[in-house]
Amino acid sequence: MDRPICPEDLPQWMAGELVIDSTPLGWSDIKLRHYRTPPQEISVPGLSDFAIVAYQNRETINWRPNGSTWESASVSPGSVSVVTRSESSHWRWDGAIEALHIYMPFDALARIAEEAFERDVAEIELKASLAARDMALAEMIQRLAMEARAKGLGGPLYVEALRCQIAVHILRNHANIRFQSKEWNDGLPQAQRRLLVNYIDENIGTSISLSELASLVGLSVFHFSRRFHKEFGRPPYAYVLQRRLEHAKEQLSRRDLPLKVIAAASGFSDQSHMTRLFKRTLNVTPGEYRRQLMSTSRAAEAGHIGDDMRSSEGKMRWASGII
Q1: What is the pLDDT of residue 113?
Q2: Cα-trace Rg, the chain
Q3: Is the dihedral angle over the CA atoms 73, 79, 76, 22 positive or is it negative?
Q4: 280 CB-near residues (< 8 Å, 6+ apart)
Q5: Model pTM?
Q6: Could you give the CA distance from residue 323 to residue 321 in angstroms, rounded to a whole number?
C-alpha cells in the first residue's frame, strides 16, 4: 500500500492550474484548493485527509476507486465527489474541469463527531461517491472559496463556523462512523487526572482556557468537559475557580502581601473579581478573611504563651514544695 500523500502533493499527479490555495491563510483543520485542469488520465495515491470535490462546470468523469471497476458519471455545479482517506484511485476526464477541493484531517472530523454523538470515535470512513448531488454541501464549499478570495472581516470566525457546518453535514450524509466501546461518562484515567491537577496548580496565576486543558489530554472541548465533570464532580471552570480561591486563602496568611498582588498571583482578573468570589463563597471580603486569620493566629499564640506561663509557674511551685 502506497504511503498517503498530503493535499499539497496532488499536483505531482494531476496537471492543472491552482487558482486558490487557503494554506497561506492559516485556516485550522480545513484546506481549500481551487483547480482548473485540462483533459487527462491520472492515478492518485491515497490522501492523508478526507476530500470533497465540488464541480464548477459540466463534464463527464470516469473513476476507478481503490482498484475496483470503472464508473462514469456526468457532473455539474451541485455535484460532489466524496473521497475517503488512504485509498488510491484512478481518474479520467475528456474535457477541462474546474473544481473546488476541500480537505479535512481525521482528527478534526473525529472531534466534531465526538461532540455530536458524545462518544469516542474509533474510525470514520467516507462513503465513496463519484457524483453525489448535494447542493447544500456544494454551497457551503462555494462560500468557503468566496472567503478565501475576499479575506473579509472576522474571517477566522466565519471559516470556523463553515468548517463545523461542513463537518456535521459530511458526518450526517456521507460517513460511516465506528465508535469505541467506552463512552464519555467513564471519567478520566488517573494519569490524566494527576496531569490536570498539577497543570492547573502550577499555572493558577495565568488564564487557563478550556481548550488548553482539553488539548492537554487529547480530547475535544465538549468531550473533555463531560469527562472532567464526571471525574471531579464539577465543570472545569468551577474547579479552576475553586483552586484560585484556595490559593488566595493561603496567600492571605502572609501580612506583607497586598490584596491586588494576591489577586493577580491567584489568576483573578483584578482585586474586585477576587472580592466578589470571596463574598459569594465565604460571605466575607478578602480583607475580613485576613483579619479573621490574624485574630485566630494571635489567639493561638496567646494560648501558647498562657500555657507556657502556667507550666513555668507549676514548675516553680513544685520546686518550692507548694505542690
Answers
A1: 86
A2: 32
A3: negative
A4: none
A5: 0.62
A6: 5
